[in-house]
Amino acid sequence: MRIRIFVKTLNILTMNKSSILALVFSFAFFASCGGDKTKKEEDTSKPVTEESNDQAADPSTYDPKRGEGKYTTVELGATLDQAMATKGEEVAGVKCTSCHKPTDEKLVGPGWKGVTERRKPEWIMNFITNPDPMINKDPEVQAQLEICLVRMPNQGLSDDEARNILEYMRKNDGVK
Amino acid sequence: MKNKFLKAVFVIALGSALVTSCKPKSSGDAVSGDAAQKAYVAPGKYDEFYNFVSGGFSGQLSVYGLPSGRLFRVIPVFSVDPEKGWGYSEETKPMLNTSQGFVPWDDLHHTEMSQTNGEVDGRWVFGNANNTPRIARIDLKTFKTAEIIELPNSAGNHSSPFITENTEYVVAGTRFSVPADYSNGDVAINTYKENFKGHISFVKVGKEGEMDLAFQIVTPGVNFDLSHAGKGKSHGWFFFSCYNTEQANTLLEVNASQKDKDFIMAVNWKKAEEYIKAGKGKKQSVKYAHNKWDEKTHTAKSEIKTEVLVLDSAELKDICYMIPCPKSPHGCDVDPSGEYIVGSGKLAALIPVFSFDKLQSAIAKKQFDGNYGGIPVVKYEAALHGEVQKPGLGPLHTEFDGKGNAYTTFFVSSEVVKWDIKSLKVLDRVPTYYSVGHLCIPGGDSKKPFGKYLIAYNKITKDRYLPTGPELAQSAQIFDISGDKMKMILDFPTIGEPHYAQAAPADLIRNNGQLKFYKIGDNNHPYVTKGEKEAKVVREGNKVHVYMTSIRSHFAPDNIEGVKLGDEVYFHVTNLEQDWDVPHGFAIKGADNGELLIMPGETTTLKWIPKKVGIFPMYCTDFCSALHQEMQGYVRVSPAGSNVPISFSVGTNLPANK
Q1: Distance CA B615, CA B559 (A)
Q2: What distance in Å separates residue B2's CA from the closest CA in chain A?
Q3: Cross-chain Cβ contact A21/B10 below 8 Å
Q4: What letters, b where the CB count within 10 A reaches 16 and e where it falls short, cover B213-241?
Q5: pTM, whole model, 2 decimals?
């Protein structure tokens, strides 16, 4: 039944019946029955750059004091840079304060009060510019995630924006 | 006799195949054993090519990966798409404006990628609207429709949107000749020969892609079908196939198939440019829409233009030449060298191949056979390189592999035929399932084809897939053409009806500076809300503007009161996220509108006219975080004349009695 339908279909839809049938025939016998040599194609389909967040890296090399990211040491002034803090507050208003209060009260994420006393400046700078790998590796951030259940988004902060936000956090913590 | 014998052998072979379970098992399995391996792209791996496939009567453009056939995205172009808010948000509505007003649907037939030096460059892909004549440009950094231009004096923009080798122009040729917009259109239909005219449009493409209707060429009334630009030596020329040179206005099936030959019209567009410069173009009064998307304001603007320059092909003798081409030519394809022009007479049993050099020499020697409506007709043999004899039945379209071979689809005999361009010898043929229309080889109409895969786009699938009622899927079939013989490796259903498609190496596009999110600092939308502290609700008469933000996982404000019946409410939602792949959605109960899908850093507006008093929930439609189900809010609607004041808040509107 099936065969008859197929042949009929071919009759209707094909002009060069003989050649097509011959071709199908040859596929049927030689190609599909394993007669065709399988040539291994070179795999050109790998991503050019790794987009994932470095999750495969060895967690034992993670430094919980510094965090992970481009900042190794961040120099802080003895006193507050008022202009930077003001700029930082502006950026935070667009990119941060939907989720973080200046107090110690949790909103979506934890409140900012005291963060500059709890964390080294380089840890803060790394975390706000490179959150994903740190959420995956930092034990304290992972504990925090269990409470908040929302991964802190990467808000695309520039170096200047991040540094200004840090200065605003210092101001928020009472640095004069 | 031979046929019968083969058929018998085939039946036996197939029968034994069924019994012994040696593949192929059924009608569909004319595939070789390693097909799956060739089409397989492992989870997490990328495809080698992007494939931009026209969505036909869906009006959209779909993006697939090759060789996997995986669907990545459907880009809304000419049809509304409530899923993405396309044509529903206030910002996108102007994109679908035309001289006829807002048009929510069209029929996208052909895609064409931008080129530099005749090679695909990965900047834009163009699409044509076949019903209300338009051309769209889709930006391949955002995969979004960036611009749409309408074409006056046209009806059924079919031979479009093909481009010149440096994307100087994208063209359009009218399928239906009609009375020009600048003439009286209220004429008897059977006065076609006197009153109906063809117009082909040359739309200039600027450095940033911006389109501008540079000029049109008016021709005798015929049906223009497809076109392709010359390249290399033939750069400066454009070739349009045309049928219905009988100029029939009814029962074209019979009346437009009378003549033995119709034409491929060769257009010397560099010459046309000279005439334009010399002031030979006539300014004609028309009306057409030009719609542009602004990346900074996240808003489209529509402008109605009122003038076009028209050159007369009969008056200016050396712009257009007619090359006779057997039986209602459809495809009109130029090989990578620019020397050979393949005309596919869809009712012909041969494929004529014309030579650009011979055409030039015929024009120089005036080897003409009279004229057609004032356009010189070149002698058929004088321009002919040769004919592919008995290639199949119903030739439609041809693409090239860059190795001297051409591949032509045959609708009636359901097959793809490979032939040698120079010797015109048929080299191979494979069946398609069924009734193939267009085909695509990555870069296959450019100077530099990537001749590894060929995709056939089929009109009929019949028994190929599980049945789905009266309407069945259209399909694409991928062939490996790296060897001498074409081998089918995969077939898959497509959205809408695929016509032409283009493909390009994946790296060309994924490394072109793909946009991951909109920078919130650069957002110049007039109703942007840069941070929750700016969130507010403002009443202006009966218009209520809600300046709203969204971030994982709440809206601000999420409690709104003081809206009254008779108000028009505009939710201007700014997505504050600044990371890839974090859109938020927005929907409100009862909206006779779509949803909003707001990309990170973008502002988008939903207009809502409440029709009942009560509490109306709103929520995020795009699963954004573990607390996505908490991303919601309420709008209170009071009766007209109520004195409930406008109020809004997030997190502070707590019960009066705790």
Answers
A1: 10
A2: 8
A3: yes
A4: bbbbbbbbbbbbbbbbbbbbebbbbbbbb
A5: 0.87
Task: Say which amino acid occupies B72.
Answer: F
CB of B611 less than 8 A from some CB of A = no
Burial of B369 (0-12, 13-18, 19+ CB in 10 A): middle
Query: Rounded CA gap, B342 and B321, in Å?
Result: 16
Domains annotated on chain B, with CATH: 47-510 (2.130.10.10), 522-649 (2.60.40.420)
Do the Cβ atoms of B462 and A149 come within 8 Å?
no
Asked if B559 and B648 touch (Cβ cutoff 8 Å), the reply is yes
Residue of B nearest to A48 (CA): B507
Name the 3-class secondary structure at A126: helix
Alpha-carbon gap: A78 to the closest alpha carbon of chain B (Å): 31
- 3-state helix/strand/coil string of B239-253: EEEEECCCCCCCCHH
ipTM: 0.72
Query: Which residue from A minimizes the CA distance to B433?
Result: A13
Give A47's contacts in chain B (Cβ within 8 Å): 45-46
Domain range annotation of chain A: 59-172
pLDDT in tens, B331-385: 999 999 999 999 988 888 899 999 999 999 999 999 999 999 999 999 999 999 9
Note whether A32 contacts B24, CB cutoff 8 Å.
yes
Q: Which CATH superfamily is domain A59-172 in?
A: Cytochrome c-like domain (1.10.760.10)
Q: How far apart are CA A150 and CA A108, in angstroms?
A: 7
